[in-house]
Amino acid sequence: MDRDTDSGIIDICNSLKKDGLTLEGMTVLITGGAGFIGSWTCETLLNLGARVICLDNFASGLKDNISHLESDEDFTFIKHDISKPIRIDKKLDIVMHMASRASPFEFDKFPIQILKANTLGIWVALGIAKKHGAKFLYTSTSEVYGDPDQRFVPTPETYNGNVNPVGPRSCYDEAKRAGEAFVMAYRSQHGMDTRMVRIFNTYGPKMRADDIYGRVVPRFIEQALNNDPITVFGDGTQTRSFTYITDQVEGILRLASTDKASGEVVNIGNDKERTILDLALMVKELTGSSSDITFHPLPVDDPKRRCPDISKAKRLLKWQPKVGLKEGLLKTINAFKTGGM
Ligand SMILES: NC(=O)c1ccc[n+]([C@@H]2O[C@H](COP(=O)([O-])OP(=O)(O)OC[C@H]3O[C@@H](n4cnc5c(N)ncnc54)[C@H](O)[C@@H]3O)[C@@H](O)[C@H]2O)c1
Fold this sequence. Notes:
Helices cover 36% and strands 16% of the residues. It contains 11 helices and 13 strands. Helix 4 (111-117) runs parallel beside helix 6.
């Protein structure tokens, strides 16, 4: 498929091709492919000439995210819960395990499903990759670092984390840490080609803003566009670093296709640290909103600072973020004004 859009997908394809990285002709299984990052990855892979099998149970993903791909003969959709066994007959070259609810508001409501997707689910996905002799890529998270010791911000991959195993975020943090341990076990016991990306806050069109799915960027944008109060937790001095979706997808695909990245775990995120209050003010300004900014209690175990050390991604993958926060927010705001896609 070759869609003439200004979404940035064509730029990712050109950038990979320029560095001789190819996924053309490969068959890729993406669990969680109907989600935010998954659906962008499916579409980019199709543009690169890959065949895509997208597996999802629509726990938090949307049919609308992939409906425009369904007419492509290289795209197949399977509705399935990956924490239950499944046989895939088509020969696979790569398995990407992305299936997992990922929003802090979902940690309260679906902790068991989150744990299952990153333990039973990754076990099923690794088993499929092993049977096919396929490469395996796992989307882990910056949350494996927990609330990092200030001496390790920006945080390198070598930092082992500061995670509360019995806190409200543990269903996600510890599930992802267990997921990483599963990947390492399959690599050492079965000699599999594995790669892990630790994703830092990623945003862009197709992110859900509704109800419990509202992560900070889409929530602020929805609130600002409706002139509702923009709800900041704590005093807003906690920091995050925000990565635009096309930068994230390019990082993931570079990790999947770079030969010397086998066995590696790599941070992919923007290394410009911002306070949450700055983000709220920026969204208010860019939307021209009359919203007030209101302050609410900080959730338990909310990390104070989050910023990746991306020197490994720069060195190993020749990757660095290209889209600045203002540019990415404007693209996201425009998409939300026209239906979120
Ligand atoms: N977006 C971010 O900022 C971010 C940050 C760190 C890590 N991640 C990771 O990236 C991956 C994708 O996240 P996202 O932001 O696209 O979230 P998302 O909620 O939009 O996508 C997750 C997808 O997984 C599917 N899913 C969940 N459980 C499933 C199951 N048991 N079987 C089959 N499908 C299932 C959902 O329906 C959804 O389509 C997740 O693994 C997440 O933990 C994302």
